[in-house]
Amino acid sequence: MSADVASAPTIVHAGVLRRFGAALYDSLLLLALVMVVTALLLFLTGGKAVTVNDYGVWGYAYRVLLVLLVIGFFGVFWTLKGQTLGMLAWRLRVERESGSLLSWSDALKRLAAGCLSWGVLALGILWILVDRDRLAWHDRVTHTRVVVLPKKRR
After folding, report:
1. Residue 36 belongs to some domain of the structure
2. 68: in domain
3. Where are the alpha helices (H) located in the chain, listed in sequence order?
4. Which helix (H) or strand (E) holds 148?
């Protein structure tokens, strides 16, 4: 066996519990961001909720803003480091099958497919339990994977 093969790190795909943990952390962060953005908008509305009935097109614009916030949150983290803050805490990294970082196109596709995986009673995530490679539906569809990073030595 050559030295290169012996020193190559073993890829460990993330399991369900780690992914749920990271998703919980990220959902709390996203909730906080949504609350801050909404609070800032409440100054403009005099404290009144931004609804389509009351604000028409601006109500739709608010919804679009929230969707863009979610896309931006995941897109920026996944394309720059491969990790959201929740993934960082759980030592997870999302990457292409080749091991490289996601592009914005990859991130958008993964986010859309991930919504389906989570949206169908999280069956797309629970699929990891039966998948031979421990991949979720959105991992398979987008040719990405979530790996567990080794602990850093002190």
Report:
1. yes
2. yes
3. 3-7, 16-45, 52-55, 57-80, 85-89, 104-119, 123-126, 137-142
4. strand 144-148
Q: Residue 115 sits in which domain range?
A: 12-148
Quote the CA–CA distance of 99 and 75 in Å, as a whole number.
Answer: 17
C-alpha atoms less than 13 angstroms from C-alpha of 51 in its C-beta half-sphere = 5
What's the CA gap between 144 and 54, in Å, rounded? 42
The number of C-alpha atoms within 13 Å of 83 and in the hemisphere containing its C-beta is: 15
Measured from the Cβ of residue 137, the count of other Cβ atoms closer than 10 Å reads 20
Per DSSP bridges, beta strands 92-96 and 144-148 are antiparallel
Decide if 154 is inside a domain: no
Q: What is the Cα gyration radius of the chain?
A: 19
Six-digit token pair at 37?
């953005």
Per the rule left: phi > 0, alpha: psi between -120 and 50, beta: everything else, 58 is: alpha
CA 108, CA 141: separation in Å to the nearest integer? 12
**In-domain check, residue 2:** no
User: What six digits make up the tokens of 143?
Assistant: 């040719």
What is the model's pTM? 0.87
| pLDDT tens digits along 65-87 | 999 999 999 999 999 999 999 99
